[in-house]
Amino acid sequence: MLILVLLYNNCYNYQSFFEKWNLCNFINENNENSLNANEYLSKTKVTSSNYVLNSNYSNNIFYFNEFNIQYKLLFGNSKELPDFKFLTWFIGFVEGDGSFIVAKRGDISFVITQDSRDIQVLNMIQDVLGFGKIIKQGQSTSRYVVQDKKGLYLICLLFNKNIVTPQKLKSFEKFLSAFNAYASKGTLRFKPVNFSNSVVKPTLKDAWLAGFTDSEGCFCVSIYGLYRYNILFDLAQKGEENKEILELFVTLFNVGKIYKHSNKFTYYYRVNGLSDTAKLFNYFNTYELRTKKLKSYILWKELHKKINDKQHLDLTLRYSLKLLASKVNNTWN
């Protein structure tokens, strides 16, 4: 593995390098457990003439070939390649809770911040990716941090061409520029990553919406009065430029509406009522949430069934339903 890395650091001639080590097979060999990844990768290939990925792809789909090749080059067989479902979930999650940081003196870092009670999701990310570290900051906050050059290089490859929100694309462009200035310095060197200003449009066949919901979404149930109830799903975004993301939710799920929040330049996507919220089940059952919000979703779906079965009309059951509803957004214990 050391020989491979040293060869890579000193050789930008990809054709002779890939021919010698036959690295073109790395993608398909490590995605057998991911149908979506195989379906996607079958549409792209490494060309025999120059060993760069072909340009026969749409800017509207996730594009992991470059990341997959370099991940296998750097980790070899010591680490399993992250699958399509995880990578698309991770990108969605980062677009909500992640940060591309460039300090004034030029230091760069990639950071995801979470409540320490949900540190398990940071541990999971570190375990799947195989790089980065977990840092506790105070009693209530934990962070997943990537500062090493190899990890930063893989983060740049992963997010380049794969960002959905315009706001995150702006911060990534600055971050990538700083990394490229850093990439050619020191003993370990990497070829600069060419920035792409294209954005991806996620679908119901990838996990981006699940990751974004883990970060920004909210499942709510309230039971009040004698027989009344409210069940809904909310997802809010700040900024006019990100309103289009909420419109995408309406299009994909074919349900819900966008409302203007009382806070200036803030909008939220809302799905309300039993019949409309039921249309979300298929997606979230297929692409599971990975934070504590999974518990919220499970309770929310359980209450949906109970209300649909008219249990809220039974005075002997109503109090227990109210108690369960109060726990939907309080799942820490």
In short:
With 333 residues, the protein is of the alpha+beta class. It is built from 15 helices and 8 strands.
Summary keywords:
333 residues; alpha+beta; Endonuclease I-creI; 2 domains; 4-stranded antiparallel sheet; 8 strands; 45% helix; disordered N terminus; endonuclease
What percent of residues are in strands?
15-25%
Secondary-structure element order, as H and E?
Answer: HHHHHHEEHEEHHHEEHEEHHHH
**Reading side by side through the largest sheet, how are the strands ordered?**
1-2-4-3
Share of helical residues = 40-55%
Largest sheet at a glance?
Answer: 4 strands, antiparallel
CATH architecture of the largest domain: Roll
Please, what is the average pLDDT? 83
What is the CATH superfamily classification of the largest domain?
Homing endonucleases
Radius of gyration: 22 Å
Structural domain count: 2
CA distance, first residue to last residue: 44 Å
Stretches where pLDDT falls below 50 for ≥5 residues?
1-58
Total beta strand runs: 8
What structural class do the secondary elements suggest? alpha+beta
Q: CATH class of the largest domain, anyone?
A: Alpha Beta
| Overall body shape | elongated
CATH names the topology of the largest domain as: Endonuclease I-creI
What does this structure look like?
- The chain is built from 15 helices and 8 strands.
- The chain has helices spanning 2-9, 14-21, 26-29, 35-41, 65-75, 84-97, 119-129, 149-159, 166-183, 208-216, 243-253, 274-277, 281-286, 293-308, 315-326, and strands spanning 98-102, 108-115, 133-137, 141-146, 217-224, 228-238, 257-260, 266-272.
- The strands form 2 sheets. The protein has a 4-stranded antiparallel beta sheet with strand order 1-2-4-3. Strands 5-6-8-7 form a 4-stranded antiparallel beta sheet.
- Helix 5 (65-75) runs antiparallel to helix 8 (149-159), helix 6 (84-97) packs parallel to helix 10 and helix 8 (149-159) packs antiparallel against helix 9 (166-183).
- The radius of gyration is 22 Å and the shape is elongated.
- Residues 1-58 have low confidence and may be disordered.
